[in-house]
Amino acid sequence: MNLKELSKILGLSQTTVSRALNGYPEVNEATRIKVLAAAKAHNYSPNLRAQSLATGRSNAIGHVIPMASSHEMVNPIFGDFISGAGEVYAANNYEMLLSIVQDGGEENVYRGFKTRSTVDGVILHGPKMNDSRIDLLTEIGLPFVVHGRASGISTPYSWLDVNNRSAFARATDFLLDLGHRRIALLNGLEFMDFAHRRRLGYEEALTARHLPIDASLMRSEEMTETFGYTATRDMLTVPNPPTAFLVSSIISALGVRRAIEEAGLVMGRDVSIITHDDSLSYLTNGADVPIFTATRSSVRDAGRALSQMLLSQIQNPTSNPQSTLLEVELTVGQSTGPAPAVKQTA
Amino acid sequence: MNLKELSKILGLSQTTVSRALNGYPEVNEATRIKVLAAAKAHNYSPNLRAQSLATGRSNAIGHVIPMASSHEMVNPIFGDFISGAGEVYAANNYEMLLSIVQDGGEENVYRGFKTRSTVDGVILHGPKMNDSRIDLLTEIGLPFVVHGRASGISTPYSWLDVNNRSAFARATDFLLDLGHRRIALLNGLEFMDFAHRRRLGYEEALTARHLPIDASLMRSEEMTETFGYTATRDMLTVPNPPTAFLVSSIISALGVRRAIEEAGLVMGRDVSIITHDDSLSYLTNGADVPIFTATRSSVRDAGRALSQMLLSQIQNPTSNPQSTLLEVELTVGQSTGPAPAVKQTA
DNA sequence: GGGGTTGTTCAAACCGCTTTGAAGAGATGC
DNA sequence: GCATCTCTTCAAAGCGGTTTGAACAACCCC
Hints:
The structure is a homodimer of 346-residue chains. In chain A, 41% of the residues lie in helices and 17% in strands. In chain A, helix 8 packs parallel to helix 9. The radius of gyration of chain A is 26 Å and the shape is elongated. In chain A, the strands form two sheets. The first copy, chain A, has a six-stranded parallel sheet with strand order 2-1-3-4-5-11, sandwiched between helices. In chain A, strands 7-6-8-9-10-12 form a six-stranded mixed sheet, sandwiched between helices. Chain A has 346 residues and is an alpha/beta fold. The termini of chain A are far apart. The interface between A and B is large, with 62 and 62 residues. Chain A binds a DNA duplex (30 and 30 nucleotides) through residues 2-4, 12-16, 18-19, 22, 26-28, 31, 46-47, 49-56. Chains A, B: Keywords: DNA-binding, Transcription, Transcription regulation.
């Protein structure tokens, strides 16, 4: 059933039927009712391709997922993010388009989006420091918003980010207040902007108390369980080991706990952990009592908010770039406690 | 730059240019070369919407993700699956379309896909037993393949599945061979087809050795870390507790280990664990030495294979439904050991 | 040299929708 | 009663491609 057939059935022109369906005012209310009824009865809905060809809009948003061919890791927060964004798209009659692309192939994908007018806008994931994609998108004129930020980019753009710096400063402060002095940082890859900022927050809190920054206490890797485990296991064997771990992901935190318990130590007593928690639906931080003390921020909510931001930017192309900085929630769980008393050297 | 402009520049008709670009034989090789060069020089690529309107194909595949509004869980394997599928789409010039949809709204989405000709086919995720979506898709005539299977459906359809029954039978056998007699099953939701089959495998192995099936040793829930933890904690407190756990997901297995260690027991000595492992990129089962003894099958590979299956089905609409049954790999890790000697009752 | 091939190109129709510009029918004003 | 407005509807022209059917030229064979 297409528009031509439907209008023939109704004995009306395509013009009138189209206008009736799209809510234009210049159509008699009686005929509009008839049209809507007939459309429903014959289960008509417009062909998306034809519609977007005619209007120039595509009613689709692109998400480009870079995947480094070397470390074949899919960002584990991605599922939750798009489920938040997907809700918004569904409510606004937009489609979500996903492109998995090898690192480096992104430029072509974005240019293709524009020239082939596949999507009306894109959400940029996983911004790195000085991320070149931002200037690229500005240049080719494809509306976009960024999940995160990119230090070192001067052109204005829209973004939504967690305040990673303050979050990790607060977390570090929290540990310092408990008396910890040797605090390890298990960070994500530090060319990623969020990881960079987290490190800044950590260093800032230490410096504020005139404590040294010890490179041997810092690791930066992809945030897997294994990373948490091996880094912790190694650090616990050296003389004067850390008494607390600040971890960038709950997944790695699970590995940290594993190493701690394997070493015969007790989490929250012998060694403390604070982790960042993205409120992933499949990896909640305990049930009623949180397992880990954590800085929490829902990535699903971020998906909702950011997609909304993009849609309103598309509707209103002349508006200025917007930005949102989310503060984390610090929830205290069972993984932190006062620093153990220092063993006196004989 | 569109086709009209490009052909004007070349002094050729749109027909010839279009044919040259699409590799039709009735075009002079010399002109084809000229056309291709000009297309590249002017950075021309066809408008996707116009193209699919003209051809009737949309070059897009739909993935419909049901999200129960009650338990707001995004399937954690989803990210890896689509990253596998995405590779295949990229190589074949297909787009991937994602629809997040509230449970129950799926029928409308599928019908919309068909009537609005949004996609050329869909991949069906998370089949339940007697899944009604399969008959629906057959009825509306939208090409589809299923990730998994649906017991109780008689109409033929294409699918790719892990042999869940044999996997869990083997795993149970493995534990039985180690002397375990009280083996707990922490399963996914058993209206999901895969979980149902896993249970069958478990029961089959027990029955084959004339062992009783004890309902108090079986739990069926969403496969979170918390589920693994609470179920294990509870089961370990009863008299005559299980000595081994068969777990449906590595995420839950992490919770099981947490409960075991919290109870002061040692995994692999006091209590054994076997888990199913989907080879998730962000949750690998240890590095060189696997943490858990596991039945493993890569969900990313499944994504690759299944999307390939769908594309070939679309190209060849009259072909018969295909199916693939993948056998798991049983990898022995540190989480299993002989059953502890039975304490003699006095 | 006329009929039949083959190779190459083109104008025009078409895909299914939106939107412009025009036009018919009443209603209104003077 | 005629010009002028609204209200409502319509035919036709896009949007940017693909595909059909025809045309033209060159070549071949008797």
